[in-house]
Amino acid sequence: MARLRRFLDKIEPQFHKGGPYEKFYALYEMVDTFAYTPSEVTRGSPHVRDGIDLKRTMSFVVLATLPVLMVMLWNTGYQANSAMAALGMSSLDGWRGWILSTLGIGYDPNSVVGNMFHGLLYFLPMYITTLVAGGICEVIFAAVRNHEVNEGFLVSSMLYTLTLPPSTPLWMVALGIIFGVVIGKEVFGGTGKNFLNPALTGRAFLYFAYPASMSGDAVWNAIDGYTGATPLALAAMGGVEAIKEAGYTWTQTFVGYMPGSIGETSTLAILLGMAFLLYTRIASYRIVFGVFLGMFAMTLLFNLIGSDTNPMFGVPWYWHLTIGGIAFGMVFMATDPVSAAMTNTGRWVYGILIGVMAVLIRVVNPAFPEGIMLAILFANIFAPLIDHFVVQSNIKRRQKRSLAYERK
Description:
single chain, 3 domains
């Protein structure tokens, strides 16, 4: 590492203004800050708590996804191996089959190591594709604007990949992240200036542009030819009873023992990540609990109203939390510090709005069985307006207080 540091320091002047490679400074800076902590950190009181930098913030978010990644690898491989057993397949064709056969890992759904390695063979190509396609866009915009390549993309790329079904084609993975980076962030000026979550923007684009590849029973398992509805889809068709008849218990949906988008299945792993983000104060507890309160209250309202034709009216809040992506969106997407509300009161309103909208879309709108993605993007749009009203309310309250003090 010391040699790398000396090498980077030696070539750095060539990338500064006037140097032969000044147009590629963004690329040099990206490599330098990826390998070492940036020297520029926030300092001084009274506006900051400590000398935290963006790299440390983003690193904490990535660390928080580790429990999700571990369960995701196992569950993706388990669903694939179980599907192969159900279809009577003894091996896979292509490069994945060659690697598994060469290493002698096999396709036993009861093997934890085998499941995780099989899941890795689906996750890794998707994540590498996301890094390359989105990273190229980041570097191009940074070079043109003479800006730094921000570490925030590492988080966006990870979260974006975790929202995808395991069967997503790689060209579609690339197209989605390019749309998310360019349209969701860079056209507004880059990191810190975007009002939409880039990862969700890319995911939403794929959902509406290629709905057959993003929804339906055939997309949740990596094995071609195998279909299986997610618990959320089952609930939309027949409520909680349909989920139980399919063989799923609440504990299984809580742990992540079910098909779905690769990173959204395990509420347990997501809550572990939430605990870390709240402890380090990277995520706002007001947003997290606001989303939960909104989801809880709206679910209770629908439960009280009831319906003879729509079974989703009777789904309890604790099932809503574990089926679909509400937990993942609540912890990792809604808490994005750039696109969320900034004021403390506004964060409560913002979170509650997301929780209410997510359940509303799930229950009332038959076209979208999952509502958290659209709910967060909807709240992103209104976050500046929410903060505006909160600030104006504070100003009026202080003016009244000041007038009352002068009269005394």
